[in-house]
Write the structure tokens for this entry.
Amino acid sequence: MNINEYWNRPLSLSETRGEVPRTVLFQRPASSNEVGSDAQPTDMTVAEFVAARFLPDHIAIKTSPGRRHYQAILKHVLTPEEVETIFGVTTDGSRAKMHPKADWPYISDVKLREANPEHVQRLITAALNGGYSSQTIRHIRNVVGAVFSHALRTRHFNGDNPASMVVLPGMKRRESHALTLEQTIKVLEMMQYPEREVTLFAILTSMNIAEICGLQWKFVNLTEHHLSREGQSIPPRSILVRNQWYRGELCGVPAGRKKSIPIPQLLYTMLHTLSRTKSSGWNDFVLSTKSGRPINQINLAARRLKHIGRELEMPWISWQVLRRTRAVLAYEFGTQIQHELAKALPPTSAGPVAVFGKFPEKKRG
């Protein structure tokens, strides 16, 4: 296996888990493309530099979510096929495969020494014209900037970083939407599992979507007494926020997001129903797919939420809109909002909202 084959291969399970020491994992034998301390810029293209130096030196030592972020954004800088080859990804037959755009100003073949701000500006302009979000456009510029910052460090490039000289045009802020009570009820009436449950979490608690998707039963207490789970005390009828499902990985929430949340009665009834109809072992996710995997908020939004928005002539609906709706409805209705929302739910989901039933805790496997 040559150096390019080695660094283009998918990371092994032990490498992604960090079981192999970085000092061993990322030792790279010298190659003909190495540049010494007094070297001058070479004729390497941007794509060649990303494969030979940026991937092994910079991307490979990132966390798994960080590597996926670079892989996704680089597909707007290099051609998608080149990115898949560089990362050693096999996508034959994959529906999710991203195809190159004929008129996209990829900079794959641009020689490093010839790169200038105009190349980056054309990428930004194409993204703007393509309707990309301001966040994605910023990510594109930042990733290009990271590539050339590394090229400056390795002496493959001289001069000012081309990306640093490109100023993002003023972005028109999107109108901030929130649902009225009537709209919220209509949305819930069209929803099914699991988007309905995610929506109730978003409106009835202060949890964000990543925390909702990453919630496991071991951090849910449906009893009337304190429970101790993994050395942590959970108050009666409460949820401990400790983890989140972020970019395909379960990870801890920032210290400022750790909290205990009382379970509102409507949510309590829903959770009790789920605990009896879904897998509810301690490590099982409260909201999961048939295979037991946590819900993918991006796929769910694209597959269900946007469809509902189009049907109700609310194309702007999103998880962020639903979280914003929480503040609006809480201010207007207070705790009474639970009774209003229950009207839109099936009897098995809503239950007797006005009555606080006492359910024995189900033994976790």
Remarks:
- Residues 3-165 form one domain.
- Strands lie at 220-221, 227-229, 232-234, 238-241, 243-246, 249-252, 259-262.
- The two ends are 45 Å apart (CA to CA).
- DSSP finds 16 helices and seven strands in the chain.
